[in-house]
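User: I'm new to structure prediction. If I give you an amino acid sequence, what do you actually give back? Let's try with this one:
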Amino acid sequence: MATMRDVAKHAGVSVTTVSHYINKTRRVSDELQMRISAAMEALNYQPNALARSLRRKITHSLGIIIPDSANPFFAEVARGIEDASFEQDYNVFLCNTDGNPKKELIYANVLVEKQVDGILFVASAGTAHDLMRTLAQRKIPLVLVDRDLPDVEADSVLVNNRLGGYQATRHLIDLGHRRIGCIAGPSDLTPSAERVTGYRQALAECSIPIDESLIVKGSFHYQSGFEAAQKLLSLPEPPTAIFACNDLMAVGAISAAIKSGRSVPGQLSVVGFDDIQLASYVNPPLTTVAQPTYDVGMLAAKLLMERLQDRDLPPRRQYLETQLVIRESTAAVGVPA
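Assistant: Good question. You get back a string of structure tokens that encode the predicted 3D arrangement of the chain. For your 337 residues, that looks like this:
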């Protein structure tokens, strides 16, 4: 296998001149360029792209840290990131933390050691706040995805979660529901907290008293939605409708309703949040608040690559809007199944 020294000898130039030509670190005359190029072709010499990238401190690789690769929402975000990155000749390393802060720290360190050009971070909980701040302070290009941390010097891509929670709850109110349960996600995650804020806002706007017993905490997983709905449906005065803060919990709530002998939407209306592909195939098809999940990933990757081109850009916070998608899991109060 030919080496740079072989190319230099064949072209009659120094190894340093060949290096400058390949790495574009200094101008090489047109005559020497032609001689080096001809020597490389004659010897079938292929520059070591990895070594060249490391010397230039550019690896054309990005890291993605997500809490749950099995959750369709995060899978779709990651797909958007991967597609946008591939178009710009970037490779991606996908790290799944299972919502474990220790794994977040380990993977963040691994990505730094791999010398990725930047990191796209979907934190599992507020405990990751210090880690993200540390990465930002170390000047590692960072985009926060679906998380809002104003004191972290990083770009972020967010969805208008408060509006989405409001849209879901207002839809149920417009159908005549007054006892509306809410299955929240982890309280230390901004998307969950903002969706609950939207729920509260819609109730207050319509002068419906907020009953704290109707707000039950979940974990964004199917089983937590099932268990939270069971708790709500066992209340002395159970809700006639439930807003679940993501689709997986909404599907769990539908299962709990059916197990209790209730029909959906005849005896219980259910609204989710995300509009994952499963939402339109469950029985009944799920009314939900759609967020542009794939576009979130695409935009996050775009912001990160812009950041790589200009490290001096001020931190940017980009918002994408939600849209209510009405299907068959909601109906007016008293409408028979």
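You can read the tokens as a compact description of the fold. Here is one thing that stands out. The chain has three domains: 4-47, 61-159+293-320, 161-291.
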